[in-house]
Amino acid sequence: xxxxSELVQVALHGDRQAYGRLFERxxxxxxxxxxxxxxxxxxxxxxxxxxxxxxxxxxxxxxRRASFGVWxxxxxxxxxxxxxxxxxxxQNAGLGGPEPTELPNDGTVDEQTRLLLDAVMRLPSHEQxxxxxxxxxxxxxxxxxxITGRPVGTVTMQLSRARARLRRWLKENxx
Length: 175
Prior knowledge:
By secondary structure, the chain is mostly helical. The chain is built from 8 helices and no strands. The chain has one domain: RNA polymerase sigma factor, region 2, helix turn helix motif (Rna Polymerase Sigma Factor, Chain: A, Orthogonal Bundle), CATH 1.10.1740.10.
C-alpha cells in the first residue's frame, strides 16, 4: 500500500489514478468533517467534492505530503464554515430556505452524532488523523502506520490518547 506522501508525489506528476486513491482513502473522513459543521448530508457531500477539487488544484503547495489527509480535512472544514455562513446570511436577508438544523431528517445529523464529530475535530491533528483513518475509513493500525509513515506503536498510542480525550470531552459536555 502506498503512503499518502507517495501518492501525492505520483499525482503531482500527472497520475490521476493516484489522486483517485487519495480521494478513496480520505473521502469518508472529509465527509464527516463537513457533516459535523453543516449537519446536512447532501450539503456535506457537495463540500467534500469541493474540498477535493481545491486540494487537487493546490496540491503543489502542500509542504508535508504525508499530511494530505489532515490538509484536505482542513480545507473541507473551512469550506463548510463558509457554506454555513453564506446560508445564514441568506436566511437573515430573507433569501434562503430553512436553517441547516431545520432540514428534514433525511439530510440531518442527530445531536449526539454532531457532538461526537465536533469532539473529533477538537483533537490534535495527528490524533484526529489516526482516529478518522481507523473509525471512519476502517483502516487497521498497521494500515494506518503505512499510510502515515509512523511506527505501529506510535499509531496505537495516538489512537489510545485520542479515545481518552474524546471520553473526557464527551463526559464533560454531556452532563
